[in-house]
Amino acid sequence: MEISKIPIIKIPINKGIEIFIKREDLIDPDISGNKFWKLLHNIKNYLGTHPKEPFIITYGGAFSNHIAATAVLGKKLNIKTLGIIRGEELNRKWHLNPTLKKANENKMDFRFVDRESYRDKHKMTLALQEEFPNALIIPEGGTNHLAVEGIKGMLTSETKYFDYLCSAVGTGGTLAGISKYAEPEQAVIGLKVVNDESLHQRILSLSQRTNFQLEDAHYGGYGKINDELIRFINEFRAKFGIPLDPVYTGKAMMKLMKLIDQNYFEIGSKILMFHTGGLQGIEGANYLLKKQNRTLIDI
Ligand SMILES: *Cc1c(COP(=O)(O)O)cnc(C)c1O
Hints:
Layout: E1 8-11, E2 18-23, H1 34-47, E3 55-60, H2 65-77, E4 80-86, H3 90-93, H4 98-105, E5 108-113, H5 115-119, H6 121-131, E6 136-138, H7 145-150, E7 164-169, H8 173-181, E8 187-192, H9 199-207, E9 212-216, H10 227-240, H11 249-261, E10 270-275, H12 281-291
The protein binds pyridoxal-5'-phosphate.
Pyridoxal-5'-phosphate binds near residues 168 and 245.
């Protein structure tokens, strides 16, 4: 989809407020949503240095949208990519994982690291930069200052007229960008899908503004999928024709609906939720749900 034509769709609910959803998920099935915007300036900036053999290294878990997006962009732009993947055990069975299988089809190479080493990414990054001096190393989830700048692309002349701008929050880069580039009278609400108390401070330091508020939407922890969530996602799709992913946008939208029911927003408010994508993760989630004999997410 042409990025200047991303639609804003009204969700018809009868609760005295208006909700709209901006379909960043339609940018591309695999480079969807915020990951596209977060990678954009990082890669442009890097290519501007005219590296001889462009090479991007980044980090992620087994179902990471950021890994999926980096692999596709690398293939499209003819840049070699290496994914540092959390979980040594995946070394033997990565091809069973739909995200990694597809990333590999897009020519991404992998290194699998144990969870302890993965936690010390600072040390790993120093070693990788020494091994590959010309490589661009992008942090986990793609969040850095250039990523925050890229999020500006999600805010257009059409998004200016909403009272509230909402998004799922993982590492906080996306919300920081929304906060940074929102209009002065707009309020920003972040729905946290990770249980992380440091997020407020991190977003504040990236956006330098206090126009945002965070609400918990992790429902048992990052990546955990409960039955209420599956039901919500399937009903939302059946009613409104819009797919949501179980890790980010499904939890964020479910929380938004609960906040509305709790009269969190004044009557008459106009709310915009950014659909940040992540739909590639449904297949991986269903793979796990099937093994547990549970209801699947409709695709
Ligand atoms: C990564 C991601 C987010 C969270 O973005 P952050 O900038 O890490 O907070 C939200 N939604 C989807 C679909 C994502 O893939």
